[in-house]
Amino acid sequence: MSRNKKDKTDQEEQISSFLGKFAAYFESDTTAEYDDFEAESEFERLTISDYVEPYTPENVVDRIERLQQIAASIEGKIITDVDNHQIPTDKEFSIDYKNSLNPSQFLAATTLKGSILVIAGAGSGKTRTITYRLSYMIESGIPPESILLLTFTRKAAHEMVKRSSQLLKNKAVDRVMRGTYHAFSNHILRKYAKIIGLPANFTIIDTIDSQDIIDLIRNELNFTKKSRAFPRKSRVQNIISKSRNCNVPITHILEREYTALLEFEQELISIADVYKKYKRGNHILDYDDLMEILRDALRDNLQFRRKVQRDFQYVMVDEFQDTNVVQKEIVDLIAKKSRNLMIVGDDAQSIYAFRGANFENILTFPAIYPECKVIKLEQNYRSNQDILNFTNNIVKNAKIGYQKRLFSTNQNQWKPIICKFYDQEEEADFIADKIMELREKDISLDQVAVLYRNTFHGNFIQAALLQRSIPYVVVGGIKFVERRHVKDIIAYLRLVLNPLDAVSWNRILKMIPGIGKVTASKIVDEIAKNRGKIDFSNFEKRKYGSALTDLQNALNKAANPNIPIASKVDILRKYYTPLLKVKEDDYEKRMKDVEVLYTLACKYENLEKFLSDFALDPPSTKFQDQVRPLIDESEDKPVTLSTIHSAKGLEWYTVFVPHLIDGVFPSSRSLSNIDDMEEERRLFYVACSRAKEQLYLTLPSYVYSWDQTYTMPSRFLIEVEKEYYRVEEEGG
Fold first, then answer.
1. Separation CA 684–CA 122 (nearest Å)
2. 126 is catalytic
3. Catalytic: 27?
């Protein structure tokens, strides 16, 4: 059976099953049974069988089975016997390692020889473990110069070495080679430049420089002069970079993630080729070159590989689940001789496939290093046990991964709460009101976070916080009111209110092809002479004359005082969409923000009030809603609004995870691919495991997105056992 036919059959069976259940209640002899059906919680009624599982090709099934076998094989490799684990008695240690760490941490910190896989659950103290391991290695007589510590941020490496130095009360650990992959590669490539035939004075360019070079190339090749908008330089750079990080052709990246850009396949391949030659001819390396050249030199240059292996006989890698193919190969090549390699990570927190991270790197480690020892860090120091019970159940439902069960000595009772609302505005109001309640209970606002799957999921929440003057900071995205397309619509509305607004005129006029800064100034001067009357008749013979006429008609129509504000937004939205479509490949996604603006406008009767509430200023006490207490921003640190990707490694007292609708979270794009679906589940796990004491999981009854309406609760909620959460219908 084909995939489409199978999906259709599954959907038809689900619909038939549900209608059958529903009809049975109507046919019942008593109304009590029907009342029970209505009263029954949706979360009690639904099961995971009510959802269509992603189609899984046979080759993917085989791969999953292979990974499951590897994951299961580690059970025989786990070491837990602390009592028989002896540390040298002929050395005097300044630190009491055994009593400073829990048993699993102690084993990880003091097992130095051979390959070691440390599966570190969320909040299990992996940074502390690595810190003590560094100290123990130094105290055991290992030369610090022979230790390599690879991390994903400079801050993480600095923090570990700093803490270790404080423990030892000396500076020996400062001689450990540590840092990010790119920093390490830069150091080694320059040190051994002659051996690998690389000019020692090569220049490293950042992502912006890379984009500018790509822009120069695409213009030189005349690829921008196409009938349809050619991808922007940032998009082109991202595609080329991802192709290199994942070790796959550009065509593969386009087919998987950018199908709308397949028509530019050959042009993108040409740009990548010229880009490579340009860098080589000018002694330039970008970030991806640092990885590729180091990997290739370690693989192909025996003299170079032996020198690096001799330099670093002990290798430690943090967050190994986030490594890409090239980074993993670098680690394997360096550690190939000594085999003294410890990797630390959590497969359940692998959420960066979009930037090339390969989830399988940590899963296949025991197959590549069959002699490895495995240590699980399962004692959690972040969350109470009720929250851990919930997150453990999320991991339990994963198709592939290492089984782990986190536990905590924190027995505070607070089961995660699921709240369902009529719409997104009601959901946002609940979250904002609950934050106000938390503040009244002396929970600092900076101990509260709202974590969402996509940035636009936070739009209504930002509006609700603005209306209550609750200070917030947006992480992992741009504030709703600061996004370019939102600012564009606001500029149109400002001109409807005040046609003499020169700033708004300059903004929107330059969106019209053929109008630059000089021409825009002339048009603004003309409007000023006419005292704000919108009349572009003096420009109608210019090449941009018809475009100005379209703008004039839209603004005059929206200026009608007899139509509601939402209608004004709708008129301007229809005018603006074609302009955005020409400029942006992802214009549909951006228009979702404009739809939110339209929905919010429906609540207002006064345009001036609407624009004041959404002025391009940071949240402040100027928002006049006297029924709610105003917060003086000087007294409170802000609430965090963040994408889940940007929240990894952080924690808060209370966490809200909104928009838990199937098709939204998990994303509709993941519903047809098992690998994408599993990453979405891990993303949900990361979000929930950020909470220390309180976890709220919220959803509206529907979300309209991408021309579809989604109504079913997220499958990730339904598949969690009912005993691990409580439901408060309509927010309780």
1. 13
2. yes
3. no
Round to the nearest angstrom and report the end-to-end CA distance of the chain: 45
Measured distance CA(69)–CA(75) in Å, rounded: 11
pTM: 0.74
What is the three-class DSSP state of 710? Answer: strand
Token pair for residue 327? Answer: 């980074």
Three-class SS state of 354: helix
The structure tokens 């630390």 sit at 344
Q: Which of 126, 468, 507, 590 is catalytic?
A: 126
Burial class (CB in 10 A: 0-12, 13-18, 19+), 248: middle
Amino acid at 328: K
pLDDT tens per residue across span 300-341: 999 999 999 999 999 999 999 888 889 999 999 999 999 999
Contact status, residue 14 vs residue 50, Cβ threshold 8 Å: yes
Does the annotation mark 263 as catalytic? no
> Among candidates 122, 133, 129, 183, which has minimal Cα distance to 155?
183
Q: Decide: helix, strand or coil at residue 452.
A: strand
Tokens of 151: 């991390």
Q: Which of 235, 483, 690, 692 is catalytic?
A: 690
User: CA–CA separation, 285 vs 204, rounded Å?
Assistant: 5
Buried b / exposed e across 524-543, counting CB within 10 Å, b at 16+? beebeeeeeebebeebeeee
Give the helix/strand (H/E) hosting 695. Answer: strand 691-700
Residue with tokens 């905590």: 408
Identity at 413, one-letter amino acid code: Q
Query: Residues 562-587: pLDDT tens digits?
Result: 888 888 878 888 888 777 777 776 67
User: Is 349 among the catalytic positions?
Assistant: yes
Q: Assess whether 21 carries a catalytic annotation.
A: no
DSSP string, 166-198: HHHTSSGGGGSEEEEHHHHHHHHHHHTHHHHT-
The whole-angstrom separation of Cα 452 and Cα 688 is: 11
Active-site residue, 327 included: no
Distance CA 494, CA 701 (A): 34
Give burial (CB, 10 Å; 0-12/13-18/19+) of 363.
buried
Question: Which one of the listed residues 211, 323, 349, 599 is annotated catalytic?
Answer: 349
- Cβ atoms of 146 and 313 within 8 Å: the answer is yes
Distance CA 23, CA 27 (A): 6
Angle of helix 565-583 versus helix 484-497 axis, rounded to 10: 140
